[in-house]
Amino acid sequence: MHIILLGPPGAGKGTQAKSMSESLGIVHISSGDLLRDHQVRGTELGNTARSYMQQGLLVPDELIIGMIEERIRLPDAQVGYVLDGFPRTVEQAQALEKALEDQGEAIDRVVNISVSEEELVLRLGGRWICRQCQRPYHEVNSAPRKQGVCDDCGGDLYQREDDVPEAVSRRIKVFAEQTAPLIRYYREKGNLVGVDGEGSIEAVRESLLSAVA
Length: 213
Ligand code: ADP
Ligand code: ADP
Ligand code: ZN
Fold this sequence. Notes:
- 49% of the residues lie in helices and 15% in strands.
- By secondary structure, it is of the alpha/beta class.
- It contains 9 helices and 8 strands.
- A hairpin with a 5-residue loop joins β5 (127-130) and β6.
- 33% of the residues are buried.
- It starts with a strand and ends with a helix.
- α1 crosses α9.
- The strands form 2 sheets. A 5-stranded parallel β-sheet has the order 2-3-1-4-8, with helices on both faces. A 3-stranded antiparallel β-sheet has the order 6-5-7.
- It binds adenosine-5'-diphosphate (ADP) (2 copies) and zinc ion.
- One adenosine-5'-diphosphate (ADP) binds at residues 9, 13, 31-32, 35, 52-53, 56-59, 64, 85-88, 92, 162, 171.
């Protein structure tokens, strides 16, 4: 099973991909998490990506494509995966298709999660992330049991440096310009399903599971 979650920043991709991967027994692959891990490890990719990410711009395609191709070839990914945050451009989508084809595989479902811009801004402004397992929380919508501490792993929670107003509005704009064209791209291929992302986390989870069933 190979699933893509499409949607603007704050749509709930990370939250839903995590629970979806657990329900379906597949791997969750987040391009943003991989990039942040490269930064923590101080790799060349991490250092190059940093300034793009801080500004809310996309990291160049060739860097992202190489990173994802490497990730999907690892043994644990052979059971299938849910991609969160990749692809974000038509060029990335075409590279993914080719990489899958080389392995005799294909994308099974692309789910487009829609949420209004006002709601995205509220979500990103209150988002906290676990430093250890990357689980997203929200100070109002999805608070941890103990403030500042991850329910799942006890890791400490932090706010991303790109979840500040200026970078958030840039990311929403970049989504509309560079990533939204993928909606049409996948609709034409016939494997796109739309899901309303504005309900509760549980309601969206149910809709997503039926969308990929
Ligand atoms: P994305 O990966 O698409 O950027 P996240 O999963 O990180 O989105 O969610 C963004 C923020 O919104 C997080 O703080 C998360 O806790 C919160 N959130 C996610 N889904 C919902 C929902 N259905 N309703 C309210 N808040 C949500
Ligand atoms: P969000 O929660 O806003 O959806 P992500 O964690 O997916 O954010 O991405 C954070 C940043 O990492 C993006 O703003 C961008 O700079 C970079 N990034 C992540 N995935 C990609 C990608 N597929 N292509 C280019 N840049 C990416
Ligand atoms: Zn955690």
